[in-house]
Amino acid sequence: MSFIMVDVEADGPIPGDYSMISFGAVVVESTLKRTFYGQLRPISEGWVPEALAVSGFTREETLEFDEPTKVMESFRVWLGENSEKKPIFIADNNGFDWQFINWYFHHFMGDNPFGFSSMNLGSLYKGIVRDMRKNFKHMRVTKHTHHPVDDAVGNAEAMLKIIERYELNIRL
């Protein structure tokens, strides 16, 4: 199994009514070189200007992005080529990121290669340090830019530091 750190940018709060605009993923391993980036054309007429602004794209730019089916199929192939056995989805905010990836995989591909569950990096850290108020974000090296690959890599860097610092028995 391989941990895949994922980050999503969207133009609204939920899939279906709004659209996933882009997402990035990285295999959590020492090199952090195996990455994926997808830009997806909107699937609905609805969008929240403030949400879209976080991505740095205009609505007009997003309308030129790739068809979601093409991007999700490419991601499925990438996962198959870059993960051992079943990939494990992990994110900084898996409540947000997971809902979009899961919905898009099921809607456009018929199933989700990650299965039915995800992991939250923040919750993992809070449990390890035994403090619900603690935050892992100081452990990132790569700046949090809202480019989803940068953000996924930064979160993966933090996860690697957590594994090393707390001597976790996690096989990567």
From TrEMBL:
InterPro entries membership: Ribonucl_H, RNaseH-like_sf, RNaseH_sf
Span of domain Exonuclease: 5-156
Molecular functions (GO terms): exonuclease activity; nucleic acid binding
One Pfam family this sequence matches: RNase_T
GO annotation, biological process: DNA metabolic process
Name used for this protein in its record: DNA polymerase III subunit epsilon
Organism: Polystyrenella longa
